[in-house]
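To the structural biology subgroup,

Please find below the input and predicted structure for Probable nitronate monooxygenase, which we are adding to the shared reference set this quarter. The sequence is reproduced verbatim from the submission form. If anyone notices a discrepancy with their own records, reply to this email rather than editing the shared folder directly, so we keep one authoritative version.
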Amino acid sequence: MWNENRVTDLLHITYPIIQAGMAGGVTSPTLVAAVSNYGALGNIGAGYMTSTQLREHIQEIKKRTDNPFGVNVFVPETPEVHTAQIEKVDTYLAPFREALNVQKVAVNTPSTITYEEQINVIMEEKVPVCSFTFGIPSKEVVQRLKQENIVLIGTATTVQEAMANEAIGMDIVVAQGSEAGGHRGTFLHSSKEAMIGTTALVPQVVDRVQIPVIAAGGIMDGRGILSALILGAEGVQMGTAFVTSEESGANELHKEAILQSTEDASVVTKVFSGKEARGIRNDFVDKMEVYEDELPKYPIQNMLTQPLRKEAAKQQRPEWMSLWSGQGSRLSKRQSVRDMMDHIVEEIDHLIQHKLYKW
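Predicted structure (tokenized):
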């Protein structure tokens, strides 16, 4: 059967489909539980959560499902804070702040404390799966999590990054193609070097690592999943497809922007966070992209724009929100997780039966 392999065995799930751990509120307990209850793997996007918020989400999900679920964390980045640079960028952001009546934000030196606290919560709450983005954890963190029998999933945008994930002890690696929405998981290369499409990336990763590979980027339906499996992946990770689901915690303006967008509507930009991320082009991108080379690195730029994006959502100004989306947006639908998953499973079964694909 197409849905029985090392990934389903390791994660104790029925279908090798992972709901991406999208930070910023998309991964509501309702969404995560609905995905896991179907037999796939729901994921909490913990990137911007405090340890208290993460624990609350975990405990709420445990009330809604007895099935496995995961937590995705950001490997911390701690660039230097340059006051002159921040003051300059503040002048570029001033028109947006004035229009939204938002005050300047104080930028604190990035630290690793929140990340360390998140790891502790994941262990204390005995979350069965932990995934990482923006790099690989230390050997110490890997060993601590493995002592608790937590399955570890890494993220890679190149073959070299996939091999680094395997070397540090990841059980599974996500091969994230350039079609993927949201932030890029690149950590060993420049963003330009790592813009490799899913179809090109997946088989090359599969050929160079022994651990199971998960395909991500532009996968929206049964056709995409089956094609990933044919390329050698043993599962897929889907983000944009779940953003517009009924259970998603995404802002309604964000959902509607995806549903109305086309495959050429997205752009990879650093203007919102200081790190490359794919989202729907809007007025904020248009006005700020000329300054991309002057912006502070992630997470400093993210701190500067976060109040603007939050207030823009409140005031229903999608032109100034970060509207993360992959390139498969035409395939997005407003539907329940169950309806979406039912269609995916039926579509794959139909393709296998009528196109003579064999497992």
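Summary notes: The radius of gyration is 19 Å. The first strand starts at residue 17 and ends at 19.

Regards,
Lab coordination
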